[in-house]
Amino acid sequence: MLYSIQRMPPARHHYDLGVAKLELTRELSMNPDDAWAHASDLAEMGDWLVMHEGWRSELPDELTVGTTIVGVAGAKGMRNRVTWTIRELDPPERLLVDGKGVGGTRYGLKMAVRPTASGCAFTVTLELGGAPLFGPIGAAAARAVKGDIERSIRRFEELYV
């Protein structure tokens, strides 16, 4: 599994996180279309994404850019109600959502699938920001949730490969 933790400039985003980015990629021996079907199925997200604790609004029948959904995200015992907005949708390759949580926290979540010779590469990118996570605190928070992202990708593989 490949991973990196980086500080990212805010100008790269549709939204201003400006704090930390954690990206993990895992090679999976599954068809990229099947991986995409599971990664983009919001109803299944709680089955594999450790930090997703559930939806608090109706899920859309179809994903479209601009759709807003309310959910609960949790990490290391902290829970936050988050309003997620779909910012990019490029089936069957990429889904990018950003979230605004209580207290000014900001989140970015990208799931990407790309074909490989043996199946596909599945990448989960998490970005953290907002006033409560500004500066070194955001980078420390990203390191703290690295294990959650690793467990999420392993769980995805266990369930669907």
Automatic annotation (TrEMBL):
InterPro entries: Polyketide_cyclase/dehydratase (IPR019587), START-like_dom_sf (IPR023393). CDD domains: SRPBCC. It comes from the Bacteria. This is SRPBCC family protein.
